[in-house]
Amino acid sequence: MSLSFKELMTAVQGSAAAFRSITKLQPVGGEGDKVFPATYAGGRYATEKRRILDAAGQEREVDCVLLDSVQSQSNRAEEALKLAIERKAIDLPLIEVDFTAANENLRSPIANLTSLDVPHRLADAILRDSELLDGTRFSKSDYARKWGRSNLWNATAVYELCPTALVFGMWGSPEKPGGLGAKFERAFVSEIVAVDVEQIEKRNGFRIDPLGSSKNVPLKQKDDGSFEVGSGKLRPSELNHGNIPFESSNGGIRFRYAEQTTVVSLGALRKLHFPINGEDGSNVDHAGRAVLAAIGLCAGVLASESGTSLRSRCHLWPVEERQWELLEKPSQSPQSFGLSGKGAAQLLKDAVDHAKGAGLQWLEEKVVLKPSTELVELVRQSQELAAKEKGEGKPE
Fold this sequence. Notes:
It is a single chain. This protein has helices at 5-13, 70-86, 125-128, 142-147, 156-161, 164-168, 266-269, 282-305, 341-357, 373-389, and strands at 18-27, 47-53, 59-68, 95-97, 113-114, 130-132, 170-172, 182-184, 188-199, 203-207, 219-221, 227-229, 244-248, 253-265, 308-311, 314-318, 324-327, 335-337, 367-371. The chain is an alpha+beta fold and 396 residues long. The strands form 5 sheets. Strands 1, 2, 3, 9, 14, 15, 16, 17 and 18 form a 9-stranded antiparallel sheet that branches. A 4-stranded mixed sheet has the order 5-4-19-6. It has a two-stranded antiparallel ribbon with strand order 7-8. The longest helix is centred in the last third of the chain and has 24 residues, at 282-305. It is flat and about 80 Å long.
């Protein structure tokens, strides 16, 4: 059973709490295989405690480790939406900073960045410090003037320019991102946690040098990135030659299962209002919220279809077909349904068409920006400094 647009609208207009998907995963190497989660401050895993039922039905406390955070999951979902836009599977408003011309002055070229790439979304400093093609600074443009006045009771300008900011959350203003200005909570929340974990405390080994470079040959680093042999005080291993031993306090983990929980909160979306020409309307509000819910569902489905290879040696696989639930009434079992990427894309299209019929439009053409002169210079000097610290020398 798939979710229809009619059911989506009924859920948005009613009192349903959220759409939810809970999926169990195992390593692609098989149950019990070792994986390596991300590490945080001090090179440690992010751990927590949970209470689960064992095989005998007894409750017990177990160790858990965070495999992929809410922030990381949001980034993966936004990347999935971006790829779907590039494939023309879906249409969404997009702001893009074009670095093509700037790359001529940079040591390392930078790919074009969109509002689905930058960390603070519409309020990001990269957008703030870029310009429209006519030279107008984005933070001083009509776009910024409109969305800078947005809030929960008037989110129309953000919907028109960057609706994904209302789905994944944003806090900032056109001129002072990241802490001041409009605040929109996350409606899309996803996380992957390993449950009942055994941590391997230590791992060590060698990276073997096929050249057999001796540790007793002294080397000297030169400014251009090369080295002199027979002088200096550096060992070959300090320049990545020779056999290099390694030791890490993070030896990976094994777990009973991993669990991915994805939620699209209808409660969060109901806080948003979309007045048109200064006039409120419940029909327009419902239509806008339905579009945002469809974006959240689309993001979750497309991200899951792109796989769960989180990082090196942390590749997971769902052990069951992914299902979604609609949490509608506390006294009733949730309504379950499946949703494919194609089905989610159609659901989004239907919602957008309905919103347009209600008078709620968004930008059809991509907003293209170019990085400001000072932003390019910041990147250029940062790259040169990093290269100097690595001993790479000057570019040709």
